[in-house]
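[job 0412] stage=fold_complex status=start
inputs:
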Amino acid sequence: MRRVALVASLLALFALAWAWVASLDSVDDLLVASPDETWKALNDDWSLLIDNAWTTLHEVLLGLATSIALGVVFALAMHLSRTLREAAYPLLVASQAVPIVVLAPIFVLAFDYGIGPKIAIVTLICFFPITVNVLDGLRSVDPGQLTLMRAFGASRIRTLRSVELPAALPSFFSGLRIAATVSVIGAVFGEWAGADEGLGRLVLLGNDQLQTPRVYAGIVLLTLMAVALFALASLAERLICPWTREERTA
Amino acid sequence: MQVQAEAAQHGPSSIRGTLVALKGVGRTFRSGKAEVRALDDLELEVAPGEALGVVGVSGCGKSTLLELIGGLQEPDAGTVAIGGETAAAARRGACSYMPQRDMLLPWRDALDNAGLALEAQGLGRREARRRAEPLFERFGLEEFKRARPGTLSGGMRQRVAFMRTLLPGRPLLALDEPFAALDAITRSSMQQWLADALVSEPRTVVLVTHDVEEALFLCDRVVVMSSRPGHVVASFTVPLERPRDRTAAVTDPRLASLREQALEALR
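[job 0412] stage=fold_complex status=done
writing structure:
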């Protein structure tokens, strides 16, 4: 509860500072919207905003799902094959060094205007933290634990299922939390490169047409979306990995 | 508390044959150019049903010895056999290994942790739990069946680890300093617990420890290993029947004398 109060007061402080900056004479009303203008836009344009938010959320969720599948498969393959791990790791890092802003228009050109390139861009950003974290989790298992499984006569698959995969779950969720926060950025880049709908496109359009309050409202919704996804990933971890919060009495 | 006078003269191994036999065993580890001779010309026999204590200072190759017996390593020289079988896979199948740290999986409850060795052999989870359940009742942990390791005390965790070791029903238990990580009071009560547990679940035991008292309290026979390269330098038969009463064991003059001799051999 104390944490909630702290966050709320910090947020209120931020809104006050924002309102103050927006009210300055030297600041053009067309270029900076105040909190209450933003609030008004959120109310007036609600159906427009929410329709476009659904489109963006759709892209984000499909991209995240693809990232999870791809990230887990990559991590498993690299965990099981040392050769693959050594060969693929530099490529994995290189995939993140490519500037997404430049890549997005190329994707849209290559794969058309629809949802495909957006999912591809979200995936390109999000699979990396998942792959790296799951791989670290799989490799974090105590060697003594693996020796013990060998002593019990366990097969490779059995050890993977009973020991390594569950051990990697908390790391997977760490990766997912990072992926969830950056996924929305990926969708926005994708929409900026070319789209018919979506919050990213709405923001870009509003910017061109000097509908500044609507732009701000879109940004607020995008931020909320990322925060909500992060919270959802954290909640899933609490439910699925309750042992990580247990105190050791030994 | 009955004293078995005969055991002192004959020793169990001369009566009941041999389950574990190590002959001329050597093991060298190489890291880069450096070579470490961990074991050299080690001779050891364990009779069925016998509890053998192996004591030695840190780094004398005690853990290597257990891993050789348990089929987790192969010797460079000599042979290691359990029940006449020398193949590593056969040794793994005949020996149940318990490491110093409990190695319980934090996401499994106590029952699932105890059943892990059974699951490793291909048994289903439900069946593994079913077989583990009676042990929890016998060893006084019924209330903690569904507790995860993070909420258990060190002694309870070690008991769960011991059940995990027992459940595959293999004839030989290889215990690698099972209580070394516990505090002194818990260690002492766990030693008593293990002594009693081995009465209800009789097995052949090789117990590796650096604690002479622990070996003398729990075992029929105690061998002392030299430091690197490790080999057996002394062997003592404990002239008391198991399970022993701790007070009687501590005050018994013969045990006191064995303790002195064993400590002398360790130097």
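[job 0412] summary: Confidence is low (pLDDT under 50) at residues 1-15 of chain B.
[job 0412] exit 0
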